[in-house]
């Protein structure tokens, strides 16, 4: 690519068929909005400038793109009234005029499988052949709904016919337009300004291609070997199909990389997740965001891991992890929730119904069951008895609990923060600890037992 090239992404469609209050390009495939995938592909191809056409009054698409690509050179233009694809591109006239002698890539914001490789390969052909326009095409078994590619007796590209305008023989053609184009910028602008509306008042890019051909300029096609690039979603059924397809593609990728997935039931691994060799992913497991999982782990069943780093030889059974770190050899679950900003150390055990929030738990500590550890710093080889709570909230502010190494926390202990339990200290079962416990000491905070003899008879 050169600095005079620009990508125009059409993201101004309505969600009528999706029956959503949000733009269709915000619909997610494997957890990522489709417009994000398309924008990412354009930037990865080497295009430095982007123009995105959004619906009138849009804030959601702008906010998403600015958040995900804060350093990219992206301008936004509104299509005030949706009057076709060519009308949408014309909204970016200002940006296209700024790239004289350059090339313009036209992309649809709801084709999540378009990739940088296809964009680059089409660009190479477009520039090498000095085409005025290049259409990226693909062959599909079910061409219904797509524009058909017409060729003359010598197999030269001669035009595009949309589904609504196709006769019965044309509808049998399986080579279709992907809706992705490369244009010389001056050719595109000239064609857009000389385009006549259709009977319904719309201006379509298909007619821009027709005008280029009629004017004697050079229009050709680039055949995409991977027909997936054209896939989009016009309704919730197609959106589900996109997710199912993407899910299996991702699973196959990880299988090929040495990950064990014995059954795919309920397994969802989002794009960008990294998993080490010989790790086993069990049914019902969802792995999201920028998660990194090490080698020889067992993840699942029925676990959710999001934006977390998991070490080697970790077991996560029916566990939810969010924005946390779990170090090597940890044994977690079942029914454990590790909330953001938590670090679980090497060989730590968290058992049934344990919740950890914004806490650091060091090497070899055991929190076996029915315990809440919040806003705490816990040392090495600590043993938590059943039913322990770090009481971190006063009603006005959060405070931290500090527990040293080799501490024994008795069952049903409440540690009322801010409080520190020193190295080697014990707390007695049933205690509510409100003051620091010195190292190697026993903290007891409970009333002496009193037995009321004959109480039942009197009652």
Any chance you could write out the topology, listing elements then pairs?
Blueprint lengths: L5 E5 L17 E2 L2 E2 H11 L4 E7 L4 H9 L4 E7 L5 H6 L2 H5 L5 E6 L7 H13 L4 E7 L8 E4 L5 E5 L13 E10 H9 L11 H10 L4 E5 L12 H21 L11 E2 L4 E2 L4 E2 L4 E3 L3 E2 L4 E2 L4 E3 L2 E2 L4 E2 L2 E4 L2 E2 L4 E2 L3 E3 L4 E2 L4 E2 L3 E4 L2 E2 L4 E2 L3 E4 L1 E3 L4 E2 L4 E3 L9 E3 L4 E2 L4 E3 L2 E3 L4 E2 L4 E2 L8 E2 L11 H4 L1
Parallel strand pairs: 1-4, 1-6, 4-5, 7-11, 12-15, 13-16, 14-17, 15-18, 16-19, 17-20, 18-21, 19-22, 20-23, 21-24, 22-25, 23-26, 24-27, 25-28, 26-29, 27-30, 28-31, 29-32, 31-34, 32-35, 33-36, 34-37, 35-38, 36-39, 38-40
Antiparallel strand pairs: 2-3, 6-10, 7-10, 8-9
Helix pairs in contact: 6-7
Distance between the termini: 90 Å
Number of domains: 2
CATH superfamily of the largest domain: Spore Coat Polysaccharide Biosynthesis Protein SpsA, Chain A
Summarize the amount of helix as a percent range.
10-25%
> Which stretches are poorly predicted, pLDDT < 50 over at least 5 residues?
none
Kindly report the average pLDDT value: 95
Indicate the CATH topology of the largest domain. Spore Coat Polysaccharide Biosynthesis Protein SpsA, Chain A
Number of strands: 40
Any idea of the CATH class of the largest domain?
A: Alpha Beta
Structural class: alpha/beta
Could you say which overall geometry the principal axes of the C-alpha atoms support?
elongated
Rg (C-alpha, Å): 30 Å
The CATH architecture of the largest domain would be Alpha-Beta Complex
Neighbour order of strands in the largest sheet = 14-17-20-23-26-29-32-35-38-40
- Residue share in β-strands: 25-35%
Largest beta-sheet characterization: 10 strands, parallel
